[in-house]
Amino acid sequence: MKKNKYIIIFRSSGPLKNTYLLDKLARLNYKIEDYPILNVKKIYTKEIKINDNDVVITSSFNSVYYLSQLTQNRTFILYTLGKAATFLAKELGFKNIIECNGDSGNILLNFIKNNKSKTFNKGSIIYAGAKEISFNLPKELSCLGYKVKRYKIYSTEAISQFSSNFLNLVKKRNVSWIVLLSSKGAKAFHDNAKKALNKEDLSFINFACISSNVAKNLNKKYFKTFYPKTPNTNFIKKIISQYEEKYGS
Questions:
Q1: What is the mean pLDDT of residues 71-96?
Q2: Could you tell me the CA-to-CA distances from 49 to 2, 57, 152, 246 in Å, in that order?
Q3: Higher pLDDT, 247 or 23
Q4: Nearest to 105 by CA among 74, 63, 145, 76
Q5: In terms of Cα–Cα distance, which of 64, 55, 5 is closest to 29?
Q6: Which burial class, exposed, middle or buried, applies to 247 when counting CB atoms under 10 A from its CB (0-12, 13-18, 19+)?
Q7: Higher pLDDT, 123 or 171
Q8: Where is average pLDDT lowest: 29-38, 41-50, 140-149, 198-207?
Q9: Average pLDDT over the chain, rounded to whole?
Q10: Nearest in space to 79 (alpha carbons), one of 106, 110, 55, 107
Q11: What are 129's strand-pairing partners?
């Protein structure tokens, strides 16, 4: 039985809690906890004027939430990244949503390349997202000949230390899996782990990462990393389930 074993999700901590993955993993035979690894802060407050013919590209759950506060329009075409962001966009009243599965702007770029549409020629292309981005999608789109307006609407800052509750669970060997959902979050985990945990502590834990790019930030051999071929939060549950079917508790 794994009733005393935990899956820990590390995620960005913003004004609205993203429970999509937590709800998915709750169906497994583990206790589930989530902890912040990045703190999110709104940094843009002016209204963004968006016309019905414009196309808006977002790259995260948080960017969809903050965008909803910066415009009253809900009828333009909105690109989202992942199920959680899509569900949130629907809840916030956006009408024309195009969902891309994955974890990065590179996924969005490939989707746009493979699904060229006249909609990109009718109005402006607006990119609303984080201040710091690992993949510069606005620049890549500009190189393809598109004119892109970029709005930096929020920033993220890595936590400075793990919570005592999390460290206690690790020291007691109660953590079976840690889930990491972004490259910046994985780097923040690695930096904090160097200060608070040793090789033996980490050797008892499996790391489910949303992509190979995220897993690369855990570059020591004692990090046992797992990731899907196609970045998608739904595959996190599949990775853990398949591992447990093969190796048991």
A1: 94
A2: 51, 14, 15, 53
A3: 23
A4: 63
A5: 5
A6: exposed
A7: 171
A8: 140-149
A9: 90
A10: 55
A11: 152
Amino acid at 107: I
Instruction: Give me the amino acid identity at 38.
Output: L
**In this structure, what token pair is assigned to residue 194?**
């160097």
Tokens of 105: 């702007």
Place of tokens 């109005």: 123
pLDDT of residue 108: 76
Distance of alpha carbon 191 from alpha carbon 41, whole angstroms: 21
DSSP string, the chain: --TT-EEEEEEEE-SS---HHHHHHTTSSSEEEEEEEEEEEE---SPP---TT-EEEE-SHHHHHHHHHH-----SEEEEESHHHHHHHHHTT--EEEEE-SSSHHHHHHHHHHT--GGGGTS-EEEEEESS-SS-HHHHHHHTT--EEEEEEEEEEE-SS--HHHHHHHHTT-EEEEEE--HHHHHHHHHHHHHH--HHHHHT-EEEESSHHHHTT--STT-EEE--SS--THHHHHHHHHHHHHH--
Pairing between β-strand 96-100 and β-strand 125-130 as defined by DSSP bridges: unpaired
